[in-house]
Design a protein that fits this description.
alpha/beta, about 400 residues, five-stranded parallel sheet, about 50% helix, globular
Amino acid sequence: MYYTNFQKKEFDSYLEYLQLPQTTKLQGAKNIYIDLDTLLFSSNLKLNQSNHPYPIQDLMFKLNELLKTLGDIDAKPNREKQYRILRINLVDIKSTVDEDLFYWSYYSHKYTASKGTDIKALDEWHKFEDKLDVNKLAEFKARREINLSVYLNIIKNHTYFNRIIFASNRKDNPLIGEFGFDVAEEIYLNKVIKDHHAHNICSISPSCLTSALFFLAKDIISDYKLKNLRGSIISNSKKLSSEVQLDVKSILHHLDITETDSNNSDFIILINDLDLLTHIPEFEKNKPLFVVDLSVSESPNFSYMLLKNNSFSEVFAYAKKRHKEADHSAIIRALSAGLLSFARGSRFVDQIAVNYMDDYFSPLSIALNQPLKSFVNPISVLAQKLEDYNVKQQDS
């Protein structure tokens, strides 16, 4: 029995495909995945730890409610053992505040890290502090202290969980990735984890390894005894960005999947990283394709060409990057669904159909300011190709 409070739409549909039970109550679950932001800000999902206005008392009330529920479950005699994962998204200051506040944070930490010797950093820190609105700066500082207090309480109560994962954000520019309050926060958290002897449960991990779908994929690989899996990564540009390469390789490594060439692989992860694709490159045929489209949401080229291509019959999973979605999130959506299809030996047709509608046709209709019904022809092609596959499966 599974419980999750995040990635629910995909997660629930994946469980339904696998015919696995799910629950909306912690008490009945065996595997529990909890996202802290979703827990704390369920009344307004536009809020998160980077922009919330709440005092520490409000956040601790919700956290203590969770801990009490878990404590009550643990106190029951003959209870079924639960496996619990808590994920905490650490705040990426660079992407959530204006430039002046980011550099104030950067030089403040740089000066502190120098133990008072970096006078240039001190001057820059004061220069940006003079430019900032006093109330805005005070609000930022207060929120950060509140968040750190919540983290401290979670680490102190780490024994309620099997894993607590602080999701770290990649620093896109290494030249300014060494300092900043988010960097200082990770250093602090590592120290607190060590001081509370919580390192067996608590860790700071890359965001690409923290989703509910990632852990479901791990479960499926284990439950279906999928050993010695081999996957091939192919990008349409043949020049996949270092960030995407790092994420997909890390995901495969932690799923115990060996990266190999397409000829020797069990499946192919086909990544479109071009916005204006003119043709689909050749690749190994008769291999399950886990398709990830990282082109901008209004770019129709790849998804439509794939739909018309003969290789569409080999597509076992499909995900197009959504508005403001991280690349690694789209990758794990496709990879986890593809592994489910691979484990079952048949295509996850509903996932392909729903994602084509949600990830491709709907954003395209908005971008072109046209109703969905104007895409009746390609939608009909999609429906026919999926139906043809179902007929073949029933006949075989």
